[in-house]
Design goal:
Its EC number is 2.7.7.65. It catalyses: 2 GTP = 3',3'-c-di-GMP + 2 diphosphate. InterPro entries: Diguanylate_Cyclase, GGDEF_dom, Nucleotide_cyclase, PAS, PAS-like_dom_sf, PAS_fold, Rev_trsase/Diguanyl_cyclase. GO terms for molecular function: diguanylate cyclase activity. The protein contains 11 helices and 12 strands. With about 325 residues, the chain is of the alpha+beta class. The chain has 2 domains: about 140 residues, Beta-Lactamase; about 160 residues, Reverse transcriptase/Diguanylate cyclase domain (Alpha-Beta Plaits). The strands form 3 sheets. The chain has a 5-stranded antiparallel beta sheet. Strand 9 and strand 10 form a beta hairpin. Helix 8 packs across helix 9. The longest helix has 22 residues.
């Protein structure tokens, strides 16, 4: 019966669907199962009795040594997930190459093997977590795309109002705490209703998209450009004083209005009116107040004849 148990134990160890190998305190390999041999290309005869690093010099020596040593010292299990370290051994996997994973993703368990309450060896198991990692990555990418769509305006592809106001609120809080400069612009297309009425909403949508593309090319990486609603747009300018904000406002006005937009065989002349405002210490009480000041400046630009940039006085 004992001999049968021994045979069955060896069969199980050799045929299980995960890697098993055993190390002594000097990190010499005492046992190496078929999974490890098949995936590493090195048989038990080739690695047994040698240091694990002699057969696999690419292993993370410091990290791996600490893991094994902690099991010898504490006599307790330790674990490493593919999320912490994607793999220990560079094994090939059988998943589609389109999954974005170069090598088998691995979960590793380090277990003490004791005799008379003394840890005599450490058993390491290697589980193939490639499928789980690819599924997790796919979920993460899907969530990221959904979040991006939630932050974007469906017509123009720039930030929507919700996301713009979130960023404005954060920048305003930072300005309140640390000081510095903060400005914003509000602008819309002049007589846009006339474009929709005379040429149709499809032309109007094209005009909005082209206008957004033109402005997007002239803003900095740290700026936030968003659609505020309808034909109204906003540009958040962190670390920007009022004089520079007015320069940006003029750039926006020129980017929109210098060249008519060609759409469905028609050349549509488009201009924009821009209102600028800055956060002022002791005066601007909230980010909503900053929006209101920019909106007041925009109204002044409209009243004074349109196609101009006006700053809040």
């Amino acid at each position: 019966m004992d001999e049968l148990r021994h045979v069955l134990s060896e069969l199980v160890i050799e045929r299980v669907g995960f890697g098993i190998f055993v190390l002594d305190r000097d990190l010499n390999v005492l046992m190496w199962n078929r999974f490890m041999a098949d995936h590493s290309g090195k048989s038990a005869e080739q690695v047994t009795g040698k240091s694990i690093f002699a057969s696999f010099p690419e292993l993370p020596r410091v990290w791996f040594t600490r893991k094994v040593e902690s099991v010898f010292q504490l006599g307790s299990f330790t674990f490493s997930s593919w999320e912490q370290r994607p793999y220990l051994f560079k094994f090939d996997h059988d998943r589609p190459i389109t999954g974005g994973v170069d090598f088998m993703q691995q979960d590793c368990t380090f277990m003490p093997l004791t005799h008379e309450r003394e840890v005599r060896a450490v058993c390491v198991t290697i589980s193939d977590a490639t499928h789980a990692s690819m599924m997790q990555r796919a979920r993460d990418e899907a969530v990221a795309k959904l979040q991006e769509f939630a932050d974007r305006d469906g017509l123009t592809g720039i930030a929507n109002r919700r996301y713009f106001e979130l960023r404005l609120r954060d920048e305003f809080s930072r300005w309140q705490r640390y000081g510095g400069e903060l400005s914003m612009l509000l602008f819309d297309l002049d007589h846009f209703k006339r474009i929709n009425d005379d040429l149709g909403h499809l032309v109007g949508d094209t005009v909005l998209r082209v206008m957004a593309e033109r402005v997007a090319k002239s803003v900095r990486v740290q700026d936030v450009f968003g659609r505020f609603g309808g034909e109204e747009f906003a540009l958040l300018l962190p670390c920007t004083n009022f004089e520079d904000a007015m320069i940006v406002a003029e750039k926006v006005r020129r980017a929109v209005g210098e060249t008519p937009i060609d759409v469905q065989g028609a050349r549509v002349p488009v201009t924009t009116s821009v209102g600028a405002a800055r956060a002022r210490t002791g005066v601007t009480s909230s980010y909503e107040a900053l929006i209101n000041e920019a909106d007041a400046a925009l109204y002044t630009a409209k009243r004074e004849g349109r196609n101009r940039a006006v700053g809040f006085a």
